[in-house]
Amino acid sequence: MKTRKRSNAPIFWGLFGAGGMLSALFGPALVFITGLAVPLGLLLPQGTMSYPKMLAFAQNFIGKGFIFAVIALFMWHAVHRIYHSLHEFGIHAGMGAKLLCYGSAFVGTVISAVVLLGVGF
Amino acid sequence: MSEQKFIEIEVLRYKPESDEAPHSEVYKVPFTDDMSVLQGAQYIKDNFDGSLTYRWSCRMAICGSCGMMINGVPKLSCETFIRDYYPNRITIEALAHFPIEKDLVVDLSGFIEKLESVQPYIIPAEKRSLDQGEYIQTPAQVQDYMQFTSCINCTLCYAACPQFGLNPDFIGPGAMALLHRYNMDSRDGGAEQRMELVASEEGVFNCSAVGYCSEVCPKHVDPANAVNINKTNAAKDYFLRFLSPKGGAK
Ligand code: FES
């Protein structure tokens, strides 16, 4: 029997799946809160996303974790989808596109981790 | 008697010994309401051009040999009726994504190799001697794999799969459904051996969950489900193999 190479897709597929789940659960609500409700002053009290409140949220352990997961996993989800869509449109950009896609998610992940740790506890 | 109705059937023709490339020919076929597209092709063969080549056998959607693209959709031509297209023209072509052998006949050798590669037979979980008697299975255990036994190897799912179209090495929906049928069988212990293929670069991760394969399946096998369950299995195997002494693929 011919030997086959194991695919390393499970890593990216796992991050993609986790990000997809998270964005399905929280994405629309986040868009609504940050993009509509707060700027237009709908439903939510004044200053819901004021700087001190957001800073406190980002300094809290759970808040930090939430922000990190939402940024990083959303990005992994998005780049995986973009990479595969390129393939589906017949653009087989190969290794370069792969590096660009997953690389940008990686960089985004590192930046968000550094910044979140930087704002302290 | 009511007036004779005619339908235009446009056929993608290809004679490998003389044609550079496939081309279309249109035939005006008289039909009755009980005629299938396959019968339309037979009418053309009997009355217009005896060299028209296509596969068929059972004429009752069970042998799986009469698949073709009908107006761009992979279908069994024996269970697709001309009346449903009238008065518009019907276009029939060889199944997409396969090399054409002649006219509507495609080369299935790649698919046959894939079927073999999934080890489509029971690899006993524990060997039993003859005097231990038969393997016992409960109706519930039969239900676990029953749906995946219904495949008739018509390969409509391959003609539907955009990923197989892009990468012919992809193991694909039909063969994965068959693989899953054996993995789900309580008498079988071959899942670990089959994992090498499932988790490989030709394996399930080529699938981007389009789901069209299951939509066109004439037997409701739901191959997309078989593929996607095995993505989870392969991911588990990927991360947990370090914890177990025997791994799957290299
Ligand atoms: S002729 Fe057998 S499935 Fe159509």
TrEMBL record, chain A:
GO BP annotations, alphabetical order: fumarate metabolic process
Entry's transmembrane regions: 12-41, 61-79, 99-119
InterPro entries (alphabetical): Fumarate_red_D, SQR/QFR_C/D
One Pfam family in the UniProt entry: Fumarate_red_D
Sorted UniProt keywords: Cell membrane, Membrane, Transmembrane, Transmembrane helix
Domain of life: Bacteria
CDD domains: QFR_TypeD_subunitD
One cellular component (GO) term of this entry: membrane
Full protein name: Succinate dehydrogenase subunit D
Automatic annotation (TrEMBL), chain B:
An example Gene Ontology biological process: tricarboxylic acid cycle
Reactions mediated catalytically: a menaquinone + succinate = a menaquinol + fumarate; a quinone + succinate = fumarate + a quinol
EC numbers: 1.3.5.1
Gene3D superfamilies documented for this protein: 3.10.20.30, Alpha-helical ferredoxin
MF terms (GO), sorted A to Z: 2 iron, 2 sulfur cluster binding; 3 iron, 4 sulfur cluster binding; 4 iron, 4 sulfur cluster binding; electron transfer activity; metal ion binding; succinate dehydrogenase (quinone) activity
Keyword vocabulary terms for this entry: 2Fe-2S, 3Fe-4S, 4Fe-4S, Cell membrane, Electron transport, Iron, Iron-sulfur, Membrane, Metal-binding, Oxidoreductase, Transport, Tricarboxylic acid cycle
InterPro entries found in the cross-reference section: 2Fe-2S_ferredoxin-like_sf, 2Fe2S_fd_BS, 4Fe4S_Fe-S-bd, 4Fe4S_Fe_S_CS, Beta-grasp_dom_sf, Helical_ferredxn, SDH/FRD_Iron-Sulfur, Succ_DH/fum_Rdtase_Fe-S
Family of the protein in this entry: Belongs to the succinate dehydrogenase/fumarate reductase iron-sulfur protein family.
Summary of subunit composition and partner proteins: Fumarate dehydrogenase forms part of an enzyme complex containing four subunits: a flavoprotein, an iron-sulfur, and two hydrophobic anchor proteins. Part of an enzyme complex containing three subunits: a flavoprotein (frdA), an iron-sulfur protein (frdB), and diheme cytochrome b (frdC).
NCBIfam families: dhsB, PRK05950.1, PRK12385.1
Protein name: Fumarate reductase iron-sulfur subunit
Organism of this sequence: Propionivibrio dicarboxylicus
